[in-house]
Design brief:
Layout: E1 9-13, E2 17-20, H1 21-33, E3 37-42, E4 47-52, E5 56-62, E6 65-66, E7 77-80, H2 84-91, H3 94-105, E8 110-113, H4 117-123, E9 130-131, H5 138-143, E10 147-148, E11 153-156, E12 163-166, H6 172-183
Parallel strand pairs: 1-3, 1-7, 2-4, 3-6, 7-8, 8-12, 9-10
Antiparallel strand pairs: 4-5, 11-12
Helix pairs in contact: 1-6, 2-4, 3-4
Length: 184
């Protein structure tokens, strides 16, 4: 085990269903291997039921804490995995919105992949930022004031907190590396 992120605490925020399996499991494993404590947080206790490419059932991932019991102050970064159903549920969830805004207000990194930037749209955190996502939500991000770029990872430090975004599971290596860099 690497100790690069020893002492760092990461909140991985997801809904309980429809999260893209690789976009949850890859950052979780990579950050833990780098020494971080990663807490999987969802609206309900139990498990996260993942999907592979938004279609096929994936493995279940245990929930470590319920989202209305955690505080941004206790963590160093927020990671938002994608998946169409997951992202759609989170953008309408007031607690998820509150947590996202709290991380940004505290100047802490926020990382979102695939459809997860929908939560950035809902919270106003995309406004004025250079970011990327799965191409199908490009118009949503542009309409929310974001500057969308087709790139494997975008890192924007322009608004008081580091925003890290990526497009799809194909970009997970770059996404994970950018999160580790932000926390190092």
């Amino acid at each position: 085990m690497d100790s690069t992120l020893q002492g760092r605490n990461v909140l991985l925020l997801t809904s309980n269903f429809g999260t893209e399996s690789d976009e949850l499991r890859s950052p979780l494993a990579t950050l833990r291997e780098a020494g971080a404590t990663v807490t999987v947080v969802a609206p309900e206790a139990g498990v996260v039921t993942t999907l592979e490419r938004d279609r096929e059932p994936g493995p279940e991932v245990p929930v470590d804490a319920v989202h209305d019991t955690v505080k941004a102050a206790d963590f160093d970064a927020l990671v938002l995995p994608g998946g169409t159903l997951n992202a759609d549920a989170l953008r309408g969830d007031e607690t998820a919105q509150f947590l996202s805004r709290a991380f940004a207000a505290d100047g802490k990194p926020v990382a979102a992949i695939c459809h997860a930037p929908w939560l950035l749209v809902e919270t106003g955190l995309a406004d004025g930022r250079e970011l990327t996502s799965v191409p199908t939500i490009r118009t949503d991000l542009v309409n929310a004031g974001g500057r969308w770029t087709d790139a494997e990872v975008m890192v924007d430090d322009s608004a008081g907190f580091r925003l890290i975004t990526s497009r799809t599971p194909d970009d997970l290596d770059a996404f994970n590396a950018a999160i580790i860099d932000a926390l190092s």
